[in-house]
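To: structure subgroup
Subject: Chain for Friday's discussion

All,

I'm putting the inputs and outputs inline so they're searchable in the archive.
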Amino acid sequence: MKFKLLIILSILTLLSLVGIQGYLIYNSYELKQKTITIDARNAIAKIYTSPAIDSIAWLYRTDFLQNLEAYKTNNSTNEALLDALQKKSKEINPGFLEIFNNGLKAYDADFDIQFKKIVTGITLSDSLGNTETLYPKAAKDTIILLGSEMKQTDALLINNSTWQKDHDIMINGKPVTYDLNFKSSIFMNITNWNSLIIRELSTLLFLSTVLFLFVVGLLYYSIQNLLKQKRVADIKTDFINNITHELKTPLSTLSLATKTLTSEYTSGNKEVVDDTIQVIERQNTRLQNLIDQVLKSSLGYQKIQLKNESFNVTTFLNDLLNDYEITVDKNVSINREIESTGLLLNGDSFYLSTAIINLLNNAIKYGGTKLMVTYAIDTVQNSHTISVKDNGIGISKKYHKYIFDKFYRVSEKDTHNYKGLGLGLYYTKQIILAHNGTISVENGKGKGTTFSILIPLAL
């Protein structure tokens, strides 16, 4: 529980750091966005208030006043008045865009700006307070006075302005004063937002990414290391428990035999003494074999000294299985599919027999009653291929990468009671590696496993 809690707290800490880092990056993004927006506004203000732009703006205003007089003297309609305004705006717009774009270049700005000034409302009031709305009208397109078309969703409002003018119009030979209220709005859109923001925040983003990856890597390494240390600790504990159990039986027997020899019952009874001495010799041999197993099986493949010889694998396997079948219970059957290849294998027959017997013993220990030993030549990998297949309880796939480790024993509920020191498969792999070969394991379709050995062909 402490280990799981540590992992959960580590992940939560990492997520918190990511959240804080993301918040800081977002604030930096907003700050840069505001800074760019202010710079763009200043650039537009400097260009728009220039005399050249002002003179262009007066062109559509003067034209609108002339058309307004025609409208009020019934020589034109509201639609014609607005159409004339739109037509005049299109006429003067190329000149405005040229001045505007040149002004941006002169401003030496990195941003690309779209600009538009649109009409938002036009009203006309007389001296009696009567107000007529000239614009907007239903089903009327937006009138762009200056600039270029852009999506309103991308547009950023810069300014709202009102042009107010008292204008006298001669009606029936008498001047009538009208109050013109001409409202407009200025919008902009910075088209290269993404490139500007990325360039401005590139260093911050790079450092944040590197830091994030470093923290994730450190956390991953720490958790992996903790898992490894926990697994090693479990393996050591399991090994100590197993070796203690294995040693306890012969030691108890030796203790009992010693007491028997020193008891009065054995005095003058040569038969009992001889039997007790034989028990001591057997248990001593068992202890010695157990110690030798630990010492020999813990050797790495670099320290295994092979007695290289050339031998026929077909004959070697058949002889090995013939001898092995004598030692197994009658309920265990060993089938074989051994090809007569006639090819020789360069290696140590003693060590290879030890490796194969380890696999056979392992299969029987974990419930295998039907074993299949096969031998063939793998022409693709140019190797001798020996496999041992069983119908035992099998090994979960999640343990496949551990079963060849020193002292490792599968600790699932259905296998934790099986005896052993966890050295058999480790020693088997070291023997195969010493022959420049490989060993792998696969699950069967139902139960059982298949161990496959590949040893290169002699050149």
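Points worth raising on Friday:
The chain has a mean pLDDT of 83.
Helices lie at 2-48, 51-72, 78-107, 193-262, 270-297, 313-327, 349-365, 424-434.

D.
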